[in-house]
Structure formats: C-alpha cells, structure tokens
Amino acid sequence: MVIDLENTFEKIYEVVRRIPRGAVATYGQVALLAGNPRWARVVGYALHVNPDPDGIPCYRVVNRDGRVSPAFAFGGENRQIALLEADGVTVTDGCVDLKQYQWRPQLSD
Length: 109
Fold this sequence. Notes:
By secondary structure, the protein is mainly alpha-helical.
C-alpha cells in the first residue's frame, strides 16, 4: 500500500488544528479522525515534521495512555508539558488524565 504523504499529513494537520485549548487527543484518535485508524505511527511522523507548530498544536497529541512524548520535536518533553499546562491541562509525572482531558469531538466539529 502506498500512502500519499503530503495529502495524508494535511489530513492529520487538519484534525490536530481542531483540538481545542484545554484538551488532548491520542495518536490513534487523530489517525481515526484523519481517515485511517492504522495511521497512529504516521501521525507521529507528521507531527515530528510539523511545518507550523504555532498553527498546528501538535503538543496536544499524546499516546494512548495519555503520556507526553519524550521526543517532542519542538523543545522536548518538558516543553510539551509546559505548553499543555499553559492550556490548562494538568500533567502528572508526564501523563495526562484522558478521562478528564481527552477531546471528544462532535460530528459537527
């Protein structure tokens, strides 16, 4: 299977742009909303080369356990935590409580 990375990455970026302040999404959730639940790893690749970190809030994406990325491309794990906390998201021991902070988009979002 061949993936059109430019188009795929843009779909991923469109989803990530929609994650509201004070919420997070998982890589798998972004993949599903972008059109393919098997793209979780592709989401990670796309976010690592995010061309517009100010406009595409990739720091709002965490793993399935709510853990931040130790390899956050835009300043490391501590920077991701600082950005999330500035959004009002509590991070404890590198982890976000998904029950409290996971984005639950409406179909109309």
